[in-house]
Amino acid sequence: MSQNPNEEKIREHTFDGIQEFDKSLPNWWLFTLYATIVFSIAYWVYYQKAGIGLDQEQELEAAFEQISENVAKAKAEAGVLDDDTFAVMAKDPAIVSAGQTIYTQNCAACHGQNLEGGIGLALNDAEWKHGANPLAIKKVVAEGVATAGMPPWGPVLGDEKVNQVVAFLVSKQAK
Ligand code: HEC
């Protein structure tokens, strides 16, 4: 056995005439290994266990949601009034609470304090005789149903308040 110039221990086994020093792994290598282990645990907790991180599909979904929200906001700013803009209004607490006040004062007598119905139809269920989408609801509220005892509210409340009360109804709409 030849003398090791650095006097480092040589391991006893020989394989095909090859011998090895008995050295520990370099620190940079070990720390890299430990770092990957720590990272993998953190990654696992973040994405799998705690569900904080979004996976690709959820990210895509969130992005699409953001896009349609931006489109709806842009439409609202441009004064376009359609089902999307009502959906945005229905998430605006100021508009919804204004709509609720209008509802309590003008609609609750027939449609119930909690939209449960009475003389008028229930507005908290999934059944919409005249259509469930916001524009259809707005049409009924604004124009009424003369033959069935639903008064037209457009002339009484004006357009803005009709929109607010419709946004309130949309915010309460059963999905
Ligand atoms: C005098 C009673 C009365 C009042 C007050 C009244 N409604 Fe109605 N409403 C009715 C009746 C009755 C109907 C059912 C019409 C029908 O059968 O076609 C109705 C229908 C509706 C519908 C359609 C429901 C559906 O299933 O398609 C909406 C929406 C609605 N009312 C909203 C309102 C709002 C908002 C107000 C307040 C601004 C209001 N109503 C006030 C009596 C009333």
TrEMBL record:
<keyword id="KW-0349">Heme</keyword>
<keyword id="KW-0408">Iron</keyword>
<dbReference type="GO" id="GO:0009055">
    <property type="term" value="F:electron transfer activity"/>
</dbReference>
<keyword id="KW-0472">Membrane</keyword>
<dbReference type="Pfam" id="PF14715">
    <property type="entry name" value="FixP_N"/>
</dbReference>
<dbReference type="InterPro" id="IPR036909">
    <property type="entry name" value="Cyt_c-like_dom_sf"/>
</dbReference>
<protein>
    <submittedName>
        <fullName>C-type cytochrome</fullName>
    </submittedName>
</protein>
<dbReference type="InterPro" id="IPR038414">
    <property type="entry name" value="CcoP_N_sf"/>
</dbReference>
<dbReference type="GO" id="GO:0046872">
    <property type="term" value="F:metal ion binding"/>
</dbReference>
<dbReference type="GO" id="GO:0020037">
    <property type="term" value="F:heme binding"/>
</dbReference>
<dbReference type="InterPro" id="IPR032858">
    <property type="entry name" value="CcoP_N"/>
</dbReference>
<keyword id="KW-1133">Transmembrane helix</keyword>
<dbReference type="InterPro" id="IPR050597">
    <property type="entry name" value="Cytochrome_c_Oxidase_Subunit"/>
</dbReference>
<keyword id="KW-0812">Transmembrane</keyword>
<dbReference type="InterPro" id="IPR009056">
    <property type="entry name" value="Cyt_c-like_dom"/>
</dbReference>
<keyword id="KW-0479">Metal-binding</keyword>
<feature type="transmembrane region" description="Helical">
    <location>
        <begin position="28"/>
        <end position="46"/>
    </location>
</feature>
<feature type="domain" description="Cytochrome c">
    <location>
        <begin position="94"/>
        <end position="173"/>
    </location>
</feature>
<dbReference type="Pfam" id="PF13442">
    <property type="entry name" value="Cytochrome_CBB3"/>
</dbReference>
